Give the backbone structure.
Amino acid sequence: MLELADVAKRVGEDVHLHAVSMKLEPGSFNVLLGPTRAGKTTLLRLMAGLDAPTSGRILADGEDVTGVGVRNRDVAMVYQQFINYPSLTVRENIASPLRLRGLDRSAIADEVDRAAALLGLEPYLDRKPLELSGGQQQRVALARAIVKRARLVLLDEPLANLDYKLREELRERLPGLFAETGAVVVYATSEPSEALMLGGYTATLHEGQVTQFGPTPEVYRRPNRLATARSFSDPPLNVLHLDQSPALRQQFGEGAATVGFRAHHMRPGDGAPSDLSFDMEVTSTEITGSESFVHVAYGPANWCMLVHGVHAVEPGSQLRAHVRPADILEFDAEGRALELSGRG
Amino acid sequence: MARITLDGLRHTYSEPGEAAAAYALKGLDLAFEDGGAYALLGPSGCGKSTLLNIISGLLTPSEGRVLFGEEDVTRATTSDRNIAQVFQFPVVYDTMSVRQNIAFPLKNRGVRGPELDSRVEAILELIGLEHVADRRARGLSADQKQKVSLGRGLVRSDVNAILFDEPLTVIDPHLKWRLRTQLKSLHRETARTMIYVTHDQTEALTFADQVVVMFDGEVVQVGAPQDLFERPEHTFVGHFIGSPGMNLLPAQISADRARVGSVEVQLPGRATPQPQQKTELGVRPEHVKLGTSGYDARLVRVDDVGRYRIAVLKFGGETLKALVPEGVEIPAAPKVSFEPNGLHLFADSRRMQWEGRA
Amino acid sequence: MKPVNHKAWWLVLPVLVLVAFSALIPLMTVVNYSFQDTFGNNQFFWAGTVWYEQVLNSERFWNALGRSFAFSTIILAIEIPLGVFIALHMPRKGIGVAFCLVLMSLPLLIPWNVVGTIWQVFGRVDIGLLGGALAAIGVDYNYVQDPVDAWATLIIMDVWHWTSLVVLLAYAGLAAIPEDYYRAANIDGASGWAVFRYIQLPKIMHVLTIAVLLRFMDSFMIYTEPFVVTGGGPGNSTTFLSIDLVQIAIGQFDLGPAAAMSIIYFFIILTFSWVFYAVMTRDPDAGQQVVENSEGEAGK
């Protein structure tokens, strides 16, 4: 288990990470989600012991490890760049953490074969990493992290440099790879869809602050802040500032200042009477073959609708769409979430 | 401005005349109409970057010709071809201002005075960077830098095509959406031929009118996004387009039935494969329905990915994925049915035609 | 929790002792000397700023300082552009790379006094190849008698010895420029000069800063080579600050003035290095904020 207690990081005047407290259970898969420079890497480095926090304490399995360097911690790390020993073969690369631990030959061979089988690396064991494709290189790095059997596994956007399809395949297998070791796995990404597909727990980050931490579907469906909802929406969250729409203002409670809803919750046409309806102007449409992204303007707001099937709507034309009350997220003037579907 | 024709292109990075496997491009004929929006889509190593470099003139093909209009430019240099390119990592001239960056290609071609100024102003407005026009380019964010390099391409009136080499790689997801739609509207406004290389299906499908799907040095299908989704000509297209990709189940075909393991599936038509062919039944997860009647299947697990769930099933011994929209119940012991139009047959990876509907 | 390990200090100790003996203690001794007077027998008297005043008021000091500056300026003006020029024309791939790199490293591997001796002999009119050859074609060259010839010899020698350093640094900087920049420039129709001016030069500015700094400090402190080749002559024409300093300290045994001069010398170098560094590494974008994204948030 990894526990952070009021851990914060400042560099000079800059706050890189506001105080955060979180408990990561053994065997859990945890995603850190946020845009570039939101503090994901800072948090990972603190967890790893590559940096020491300015304040707060870090506990690994109940033991205070604050300020203990990465070498004295039980940590495995995989980065966005494919980092392997270029002069060693794939087999030697995977074996390297085991050699350091002083395992005997046959035990090393067993472990290497097992990890190679898990990641489909058997055909490449005698090649050098640089002779492999990007996806294979990253699998070697992952295999090394697996055999290390560390208590804490940190993955810093490990799939970002891979092809889309390859990402999909590895993403599906990743949570299972470390499950049996009982390690705490932390995975940093900037893509909301990746967090959703990986499942487990998600912590959303925004400008150096962990805004929410909980089971992934719950954080997705019940974001506690506007910032969380924004970083956890792809296509981007559609946001409506109520002071710009006096007509809609009365439909919401006193405290509500902003409402948001996701692209796929906007449905074309008239809905039930209790639904919120909008008349909008279409700015452009993008068609993926199975779905259409219809970009619309509602007053000063630019929104995106995700519609099933092919809808080639001419830019400039008018479109009516509705959103169900249950799908609307309400936030107060400070961007804090109000009770979900608190309205009638 | 002209139509771009690729005629019998083959390319190898080693000695010509080697085994076909050594070729990065294994022979392709393509035409890009003037003013179209195209995407070259495929995994890394499929030859799409090689193809792009051949079009831009950074590479001379081992065999075949490149025509701009009627003119053979196979051996012409990049600067003679009037091509613009936006690279994966933004290329800007650090020490110049945004305005100077955009003026640069014109200045190099001897354009001066009011004509230069008015062209540059028009482009600054088009790409929405007027407010940073006099800043140094190196202080810009990644998406702005990409706009600057795009602006350098758009500013020239003589450009035959603008090539994009995975231009959104270093852009944050939220900005990707904005930049992509802006690219699309820029294409509409300028009516320039644009060729966009990517491994990301969403980028390719949303940007292009025609998507060229490449695999292992060959073009496997050219079509509109909808065609690729609804009528994949090759199992690779089925697998590559869509997320998750098409379910491809090994199947024995006899007339209008396909046997997948222990289950026999009724087909919407007949098909007769050759005896030695490997046959597969393809169905997209979107076209698999879970209900209380239909074929037997066993539910293995359900992944909640937000706006839909992915149900993973065992179907006749094979793995089958179904897409279930948010808010739709999944029965505990579901039966499986398929949308008739969503069933496809492949023989040796190629699409099979129905012999009249049953 | 592990206690913080203090044993590491023992590992650093030998270095600290070495630095103390080789740098700190001699430096403090020099500082002491510069404020003291002595008549031998290890008897010292407080002298205040007498030596500093004496040095700063002597024409000899200012002349030497002027020569040192002139030498460094000429050296930088030749070696930096020449080094960049050579680096630009070195091959980027193939076996030529290794060959060029080895060739460029050779002069750097030769000890200073050997370089001096080589050129001292090379330039001699009677037995030197260069001197002899020039004499044979009728050029009136004699670095022992003609101050201009002496300067030319020292400058050519330094250029021969140290331009490689600039070449290697600039080459490393050039090699780090991504290929896409050249492609973009090609597409934009940029001339060779424009490529240099707007891509290569800005991208190697950082390493050039280091090159200028190193070459300035080194040439400003040059001692061995002119000492071996010209010994500061003819007359005082190649008596740089360093040579003058040694003449005062060892030749005349005026420890007080020599110490004061050393301290002044030290501060000149320190100041100039700092100014160089500050000027060349200042951020041209200072005061310009990095713009996050261009448009206002949707819907605000």
In short: The two ends of chain B are 49 Å apart (CA to CA). DSSP finds nine helices and 23 strands in chain B. Chain B touches chain A through 41 residues (CB under 8 Å).
